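Translate structure to sequence.
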């Protein structure tokens, strides 16, 4: 996310992990919502149950250890942050995919995998968690006049890197 003046100390980006119905525990059409709720509840608890966001330095995330201090990059999340190990709340396939993605992005954007880069999470709603079937006109098959959009749930992490 970018502030209007785009003059913050950090460059913010989101890293998304694809999640499919096969990743859910059950067969309900609402499994995507249940999946999101579970991750958000875990993040709320890890953050201290006070609306602080759990954060972790990339080096610590990659090595599966709790962050206990910050480096050069300072978080900007308000109301506050809690040092965490985000691996504790993520399904293994999500954590592993994030680690691969961070390494890959670093080959494209120098410094993306900087040890001091901060991961802040979790935001789970980059698109709809419920699949709505559509007819040929792209209208909902079950609710006439409704034109749904969105393709499925993803997990989004705000990711801060220094752009100084």
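Result:
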């Amino acid at each position: 996310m970018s502030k209007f003046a785009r003059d913050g100390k950090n460059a913010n980006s989101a890293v998304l992990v694809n999640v499919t119905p096969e990743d859910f525990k059950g067969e309900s059409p609402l499994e995507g919502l249940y999946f999101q709720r579970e991750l958000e509840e875990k993040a709320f608890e890890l953050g201290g149950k006070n609306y602080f966001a759990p954060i972790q330095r990339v080096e610590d995330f990659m090595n599966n250890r709790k962050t206990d201090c910050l480096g050069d990059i300072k978080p900007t999340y308000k109301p506050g942050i809690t040092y965490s190990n985000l691996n504790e709340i993520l399904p293994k396939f999500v954590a592993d995919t994030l680690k691969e993605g961070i390494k890959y992005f670093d080959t494209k954007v120098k410094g993306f995998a900087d040890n001091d880069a901060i991961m802040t999470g979790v935001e789970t709603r980059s698109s709809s968690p419920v699949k709505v079937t559509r007819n040929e006109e792209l209208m909902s098959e079950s609710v006439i006049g409704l034109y749904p959009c969105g393709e499925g749930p993803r997990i989004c992490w705000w990711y801060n890197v220094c752009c100084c």
